[in-house]
Write a structure and sequence with these properties.
The chain is an alpha+beta fold. The chain contains 4 helices and 9 strands, in the order βββααβββαβαββ. The protein has a single domain (5-181), classed as 3-Layer(aba) Sandwich (Aminopeptidase).
Length: 183
Amino acid sequence: MKVGVLALGDTGWYNFNPSPFARPGVRPYLYPMITLLRTDSSNPDYRALIVDLDKDLAIRDGEVYHEFYAQYNKSDDIKYVLVAYQGDVPVGCGAIKHYEGDIIEVKRMYTLATQRGKGIAAQVLKELEQWAIELNYAKAIMETGVKMPEAIGLYTKNNYVIIPNYGQYAGMPDSLCFEKVLK
């Protein structure tokens, strides 16, 4: 079994150490290699993952709130999309979209339910942040729902801080917004 993370970036493949905290004599749980592909919103694997994401959000948000949020989650014009693969199988995704000035918005973060807890979303998020830096963005913002504890944990663990709800999310009690300074 191959172990590690291989990520395709603009400058080639990156190999990440899967277990920097491994102790001698202790065998860490090994996950199959994850490949991260930079693409855009026309990628069919991304589109399939988004269908799953929207189904999950409809259940968590409820009908009324899901209709409200769905209008802001259109993927047709997103230029910067990342798809995570385990072998040839797409298992997660995320995207970044220009918000204003030097601020990028993180969008459409999702990992298949069967693949959660393996660090895939953290790898996707870190690669999206790196991509944003390469595009000269200084800050990332994002919105998630209060009923998304996995997402809240991911963002706080990756040094995002809670901010007042911005833009269309202002005044929405089920929204929680975050930001992180990238540079």
